[in-house]
Amino acid sequence: MGRVTLSGLLNFIDGLWSACGGERVIVVTTNHADRLDPALIRRGRMDKHIEMSYCCFEAFGFLARNYLAVDAHPLFDDVRALLQEVDITPADVAELLTPKRAGDDEGSCLAGLVEALREAAAAKNATSNNIQEDGEVVEVE
Predict the structure, then answer these.
(1) In the 8-state DSSP scheme, what is residue 139?
(2) For the chain, which end, N or C, has fewer CB atoms within 10 Å of the first or last residue's CB respectively?
(3) What is the pTM of this model?
(4) Helix, coil or strand: residue 127
């Protein structure tokens, strides 16, 4: 199977721009924009750069309104604190807020989110208790 070269990718993208009439949208995603060749992301080729960050409390509030039709709940304070501690994508939050069973209400969905955030925080804290020593992970007691 052949490899895609930078030159081939640039020719492909430029060919799309020149061959298509009217409006065109090309979506390119990466987890490492800093590793992309500047020729690929220059103006005129990639005009709009959007960083998709982790979920903050404001975004959570938007998702809670859309998925659960709720603007306030006693668990919101827990969610706020945990979101400051844990990196989670809005897509993961949305999935956790989506009712899975007929009996699920906003309380059970929010409780599931809080539980998942607490598990992620515990895993993050457990990882931070390890240190790198000559390339090896060592458990610190």
Answers:
(1) E
(2) N
(3) 0.65
(4) helix
